[in-house]
Inverse folding.
């Protein structure tokens, strides 16, 4: 058995799974401290389907906590960015394009020292260790507690970042250190930004992970705890402490992965209808298609991997007016403001109840609604969602649509241009299921010089390295396969330089004391 | 626009990406660098070709190399000015103005950086009226103006001055030096007088970049069609609206050549468009019939936002509108076509015009 938990902004959902069979599923309110909500969710599972905590072999948690902390600029550690690039890059120092309030929130400080690599591995300048030591001393004086280190072309060669980390660690033994080569891809400012964000979240990550571990442990569960990542794979708690940024988009990813398992489809469009928005993504081979452009988070350009998701402002809490649904929503006030709960605001939930698609609150309170208005609102929702699904489609082939999330009752049984809409069992807790069935991944993203006649060997080596990384991270070797591969020649570079990305995933290797 | 201020840079970047015809490099780094320079040294005076004194001494400034490298090994303001400084030293005379080599992508903004730091006015003109991949592909070549002496500078402080027998050799030697310098260098070239500039440059292109950016921004704010606004301003036509269904790339002699295939949407449903590109878009065919070629402009714009989509960023599933717009008429002369027509790029095709 395993437990999947999705801690969203409003709801904490939990499921108990045996293999891929759902034994119990609960929806509880997210609490300010997160942990008591999780404790309540696990207790809810126990009530529905009593189980021996010792039989739980893994707990997987998806959380939006870290991205919310960044957006709200709260509980961020005083952070320094150390860049190894001089004499390049002096005019565009770290955080050059950040919103001022976030620089303030992380007490951001930037340092530039000599170092960095050329595209082909030559040194721009030798790493100036004395400069690094001096920068570290200054960080210590300023009360910096977390350091982000970025070196030019570190995705090609990370040696300078690793050496600088040793020096900083010797000077500032208590500081957390994040390396850009482990976080982002080519594109220095975007990779550096992601690394600084990660650094600023490290203290909060340690705190949250401890809280999650103690709430799970408090329920008598001794199984290992995992957090789900943006790409639908898992990380263990040590990894989560070091790379909180990798959890940023796990919410939509978990919903999509859960939809895949519930529907049995591994190539489909997924519509997740929540309280405020509907998120639409596309699954290919069971994994979300990734956004290929830079992603702006809280006003900061970054380039870590995020699922390609298009959102529109339609959800269960959307306000309904003549001819329009959303984009404004009553949000968490749904249970006091919607008509079916005795409130004064016409919402999409009221429309669903009036149309007989859901039984929520008191249906008599919406019995008076004009039929024409109800039908027009439902048609509007169907048209808008159909349009987004159509936009996400990448070929003329029809793409099946799977609807999940509590608000998916708002969708019709057929969407224009897409055909039948599947609403699988347990659709309301698809995100928690997605967390529970997440897999272990390994990835390579690097620029290779591909000599004539050597392409196949280079491609094979890259794929093997991705597989090795997945196994090292805990995947069961017999289940690992390459799920994504991309090679892009880079213009204006000699030596047939080619950027190769390979991603491998496999099932989490689960063992326990009883060898089950 | 009489001077370029911080507030103008976003619009210029948006417009420059459109005139980049799929190439020209992502102007993001150029915009950030220009913003740093303007913040430090103040706004840049813009001088129209009409106002340029005959005896003015101007040089072009540009980034040369791989955009992929530039976004990793960030250039600095000093490096941009170092190229112009080295050329001025070799010429033994002072500079009075800075000019753009191309209108499109990052190289519409790099000259703003040089002009700001050197305190010189920037000429509202460029050598192409669009973006092209090689140094000799500028109208001044048709007027017998030499690319060299030209200077090239890296971030380490290395500088070189080339003096070549013709403009094709300037491209060849500068390309070699650029690779040794780490594939992202700053160059300064095409030193010319005000009179020569008036003859040989394409007038008003920086203003055009800013105007295109403003049109896109305003159309979006008004929920109007930004693509239509761009087509109208450029006097071009909409070739096709579709979804990218295939992108194939390969590197040939250092350039990324490739093809993209789009399946039609809306009025183009059932048709297919093929784009052939070498960094920039070169040929557009609809259902096997050539509809536009270089030297005219073939631009891929996001169908909703009107933002340019570069050939490097083209991906499966994107919705784009492909538009064509006429190039400066001098590119359609026999000499212009020899320099940058379809046959120069290896297509046995007569050029197809794009006048709307």
């Amino acid at each position: 058995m395993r437990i999947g938990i999705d801690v969203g902004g409003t709801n904490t959902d939990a499921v108990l799974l045996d293999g891929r069979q759902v034994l119990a599923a609960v929806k509880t309110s997210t609490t300010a401290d997160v942990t008591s909500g999780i404790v309540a969710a696990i207790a809810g599972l126990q009530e529905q389907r009593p189980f021996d905590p010792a039989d739980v072999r893994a707990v997987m948690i998806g959380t939006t906590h870290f991205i919310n902390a960044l957006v709200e600029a709260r509980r961020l550690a005083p952070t320094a960015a150390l860049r190894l690039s001089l004499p390049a890059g002096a005019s565009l120092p770290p955080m050059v394009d950040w919103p001022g309030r976030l620089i303030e929130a992380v007490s951001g400080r930037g340092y530039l020292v000599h170092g960095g690599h050329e595209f082909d591995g030559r040194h721009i300048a030798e790493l100036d260790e004395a400069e690094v030591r001096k920068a570290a001393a200054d960080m210590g004086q300023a009360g910096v507690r977390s350091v982000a280190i970025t070196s030019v072309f570190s995705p090609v060669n990370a040696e300078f970042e690793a050496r600088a980390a040793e020096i900083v660690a010797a000077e500032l033994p208590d500081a957390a250190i994040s390396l850009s080569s482990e976080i982002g891809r080519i594109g220095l400012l975007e990779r550096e930004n992601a690394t600084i964000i990660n650094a600023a979240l490290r203290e909060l990550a340690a705190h949250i992970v401890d809280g999650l571990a103690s709430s799970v442990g408090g329920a008598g569960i001794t199984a290992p705890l995992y957090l789900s990542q943006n790409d639908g794979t898992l990380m263990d708690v040590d990894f989560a402490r070091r790379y909180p940024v990798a959890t940023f988009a796990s919410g939509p990813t978990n919903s999509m992965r859960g939809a895949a398992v519930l529907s049995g489809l591994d190539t489909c469009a997924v519509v997740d209808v929540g309280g405020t928005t509907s998120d639409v993504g596309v699954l290919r081979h069971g994994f979300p298609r990734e956004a290929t452009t830079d992603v702006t988070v809280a006003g900061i350009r970054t380039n870590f991997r995020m699922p390609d998701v298009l959102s529109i402002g339609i959800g269960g809490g959307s306000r309904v007016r003549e001819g329009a649904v959303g984009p404004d929503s009553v949000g968490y006030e749904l249970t006091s403001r919607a008509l079916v709960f005795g409130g004064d605001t016409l919402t999409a939930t009221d429309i669903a109840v009036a149309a007989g698609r859901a039984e929520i609150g008191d249906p008599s309170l919406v019995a008076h609604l004009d039929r024409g208005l109800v039908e027009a609102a439902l048609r509007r929702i169907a048209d808008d969602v159909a349009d987004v699904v159509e936009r996400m489609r990448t070929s003329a082939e029809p793409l099946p649509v799977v609807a999940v999330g509590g608000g998916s009752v708002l969708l019709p049984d057929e969407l224009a241009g897409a055909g039948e809409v599947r609403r699988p069992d347990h659709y309301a807790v698809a995100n928690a299921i997605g967390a529970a069935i997440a897999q272990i991944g390994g990835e390579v993203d690097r620029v290779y010089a591909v000599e004539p006649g050597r392409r196949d060997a280079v491609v094979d080596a890259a794929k093997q390295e991705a597989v090795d990384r997945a196994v090292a991270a805990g995947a069961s070797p017999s289940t690992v396969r390459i799920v994504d591969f991309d090679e892009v020649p880079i213009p204006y570079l000699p030596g047939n330089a080619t950027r190769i990305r390979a991603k491998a995933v496999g099932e989490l290797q689960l063992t326990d004391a009883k060898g089950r | 626009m009489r001077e370029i201020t911080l507030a103008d840079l976003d619009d210029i970047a948006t417009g420059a990406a459109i005139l980049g015809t799929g190439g020209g490099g992502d102007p993001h780094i150029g915009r950030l660098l220009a913003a740093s320079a303007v913040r430090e040294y103040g706004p840049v005076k813009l001088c129209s070709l009409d106002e340029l004194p005959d005896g003015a001494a101007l040089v072009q400034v540009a980034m040369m190399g791989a955009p992929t490298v530039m976004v990793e090994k960030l250039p600095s303001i000093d490096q941009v000015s170092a190229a112009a400084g080295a050329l001025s030293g070799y010429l033994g005379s002072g500079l009075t103005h800075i000019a753009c080599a191309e209108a499109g992508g990052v190289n519409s903004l790099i000259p703003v950086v040089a002009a700001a730091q050197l305190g010189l006015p920037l000429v509202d003109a460029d050598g192409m009226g669009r973006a092209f991949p090689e140094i000799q592909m500028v109208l001044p070549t048709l007027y017998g103006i030499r690319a060299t002496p030209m200077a090239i500078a890296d971030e380490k402080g290395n500088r070189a001055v080339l003096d070549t027998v013709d403009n094709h050799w300037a491209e060849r030697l500068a390309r070699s030096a650029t690779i040794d310098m780490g594939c992202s260098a700053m160059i300064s070239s095409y030193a010319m007088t005000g009179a020569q500039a008036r003859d040989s440059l394409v007038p008003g292109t920086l203003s055009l970049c800013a105007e295109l950016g403003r049109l896109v921004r305003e159309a979006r704010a008004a929920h109007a069609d930004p693509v239509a606004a761009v087509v109208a301003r450029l006097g071009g036509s909409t070739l096709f609206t579709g979804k990218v269904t295939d992108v194939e790339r390969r590197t040939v002699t250092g350039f990324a050549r490739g093809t993209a295939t789009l399946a039609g949407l809306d009025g183009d449903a059932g048709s297919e468009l093929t784009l052939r590109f070498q960094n920039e878009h070169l040929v557009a065919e609809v259902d096997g019939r050539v509809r536009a070629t270089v030297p005219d402009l073939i631009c891929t714009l996001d169908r909703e936002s009107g933002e340019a989509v570069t050939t490097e960023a083209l991906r499966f599933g994107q919705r784009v509108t492909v538009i064509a717009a006429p190039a400066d008429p001098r590119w359609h002369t026999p000499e212009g076509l020899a320099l940058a027509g379809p046959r120069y790029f290896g297509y046995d095709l007569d050029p197809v015009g794009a006048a709307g």
Observations:
- DSSP finds 13 helices and 24 strands in chain A.
- The radius of gyration of chain A is 24 Å.
- Residues 438-506 of chain A form one domain.
- The interface with chain B takes residues 85, 87-92, 96-97, 116, 118-119, 122, 124-125, 152-153, 186-189, 289, 292-293, 391-396, 488-494, 496-499 of chain A (CB under 8 Å).
